[in-house]
Structures are given as C-alpha cells and as structure tokens.
Amino acid sequence: MNEYDSARLAAILELNGASPAFKPEKADIILVNTCSVRAKAEESAIARIWDLKKLKTENKGLKIGVLGCMAKNRGESLLKDLPFLDFILPPDEYQKLPEILFQKTEPAPQTPFAKLTNKYSAFIAIQSGCNMRCAYCIVPYVRGREQYREPSSILKEIESATVAGVSEIVLLGQTVNGYRYKGLSFAELLKQVASIKGVERIRFVSPHPIHYTSELLALLMSEKKIAPHVHLPAQSGSNSVLKKMKRQYTREAYLSIAEALRSFNPLYGITTDIICGYPGETEEEFKETLSLLQEARFDGAFMFAYSPREGTPSASEKELITEEEKKSRLQRVIDLQHSITLERAKLMLGRQERILLEKLSRRNSSEWIGKTGNFKKVIIPAQPSFKEGMYVDCVIEGLKGHTLQARTSTFNFGCTI
Ligand code: SF4
Asked: What is the three-class DSSP state of 223?
C-alpha cells in the first residue's frame, strides 16, 4: 500500500511540474513515506529522516516532509522531535500536497493515477482503511475505517496501465476482498478487471479469511487470469489465541479455504503471516500453530515474534513470555516452515510453467528472474529476446535453495497464467 501511495505522490509531484532527482543531494523536495505497522519500522524511518538533516545546510531551499502512517500516529510531536522538518501529512490528507509545496489552492485537474514503477505490473489501490480491529494492530487507528474506491476510477486506472504496457494487475487493500461498492462485490469487480484488454494476470493483496465468499471461491477456480496464489494471513493456529487477537475466524474456517483452493489446484500457492509468542500464548497453543503449518502446507510465510504496538489493546496485556522464549518459538516456526517451503518447491520440478520476466539478475547478468502464476521465483538463462514484462514458457528443472531454476521451453500451452 505504501509503495502505491509513493507512486501516487510521485504522480502528484510530476503533475505540478516536479521531476525526479536521482540522489537526495540533488533534490529540492524530499518526502519520506512511513509505515507504522511495527515500532521498528518507525524507528528506522526516524533514523533515516535524521540522516537527511545535513542536506538542509547544503540546500537552504530544501523541503522535507514526513508522510504516511507515522505522520498520523505521531502527529505534531514529530515536528517537535525533528524540528528541521517542514511539514507532516497523514494518508487521508494527501490532496493538500500541491497547496503545501506549490501554493496551489485549486484542486488538481484530475486525480492523478499512480506513476508506474515498472513496465509489467501495476499496484492499484481499491480500498483503504480497515474495520477489523485486530487486537495487536495499529492500522485501523492510522488508516481509519474502510473506504472503497469507485469502480469506474479503478477500471480507468487499469486501462491506462495496460496502454502503457502493463499486463499484471495487483489490487490492493488492507482487507482487499472486503471491497464493495453500491452492491458491486469484490468478485464482480475482479470479473470486470479480467475483461480489460491487455490484463493477463491478476493478483490481490491482502485478503481476509472472513471475506472468502462462495462467489469469490467459485471465481478463483474459474477465471484463468486470476493467478493461483494468495497471501492469506493466518497469524495463529490456535482458536483461543485467534479469539484473543480478535481475528474473527477459527482455525477450521481458515483451513477450509486452503482446502478448497488446493483441492481445485494442488499447486495453488498459499503464503501467510504468523505471529509467535502473542501475550499469554501457551506451549500447547503454540504447538497448534506448528500443526497449522503442517496441515496448510504453506508455500512461504512471513514469521514474527510478537512485539507490542503502543496504542493497541494487546499492548496493555501483561506479557508473560520472555523474549528468549519468543525467539525460540519463532525459530521453531521458521525451521518447520523452511522445510515445508522446500517440499512445496520440489513439487514444481519437471513442470512446464509460464513465467513473467521481472528483471535481469543482479548477481549474474546472464540470468533473468521471473515469477510463476503461483508466485514462485524462477531463475532462467538469459536470451537475446528477453525483456522486462515478457511471458516465457519454461520447464522447471532444478532448485537453488528455495528458488526454481528453469530453461525455456518451445512448448506453448496457450494459457495466460
Ligand atoms: S485485518 Fe487486522 S491485521 Fe489486518 S489491517 Fe485490519 S486490523 Fe490490522
């Protein structure tokens, strides 16, 4: 979401006559777009902002602004703590940017579309905010309640992206599959996106388990342009912990979604987020998370030791688990998940896949990096015809760590994902 917002802010700046400076030393405007989801993210942003202070002595006209969730979360106190800042601007006030920077009092002629950051894929925000109130999460406090973007503006932005050569569309929202607009459901929006000429692969992030309707599941199984991968945060495998987290689903409900997707396609990519050592989590409850990993066979996971986020309900809960124990649980989850990720990657060996080329490998310029529909990273030897955003048919013939290695195939399977 922040990458999308940064791209949108870049589009606003360009619309007002600014052009990109490729080094902070050359810039007259520096906007730091921040994340508040973990305390560590805020600390890193503050350290980065302090580094910019010296540029103000070299360029007296330089304006530095802090945007994003930290601007909302810390508010005016940021201006006191970082007195060299010119302004702060939270996510719900970005329309004020032209006025602050360019003294423009009239609204922009049209809502600018996000500036594309690459040639093949576009992030398109369809929803912002979150109505969920998970007990450990700061997002609803900094991003506010859910707001859904008008379908016509979403479809227009996607059409512009495809005209610029983009073929992969990633729909974004805090609980993206909860999208609705005057009777139009998320599944119906997906259908409209799939009908746009030039759209070849559709992804969406991050869905919430409670919004997996039967209508959505049926569409995921029938619409070939929707990539067979989902990042579906589970957080815990224990019903009692899920209840304390206020996640609003049970382990069984979560697993039933995974089962539906995998019974349709055993290679359906499912990745997740896991929190270890939530306040009060017992060894038994933690073992239920390990067993969830075993049962769901995730293709990958972002795994974290719980850290309290000030301002959230769970931050006031007494923590009985030591930092050492949290780290040890995290390591156990990581070790187990790594072995499952490897097993899942091995299932791809020998398969014919269509990958989307993303970039030339930085480590080895004779190799390209691409992604399969089920979101596996693939390395493939370069060919003169290769270019960013091209779809290539290949055969998976090896593994390097968890990364698939492939060779091009002359076989054309006539599918788009
Ligand atoms: S669903 Fe829960 S974890 Fe996700 S953004 Fe909303 S409150 Fe946070």
From this structure: coil
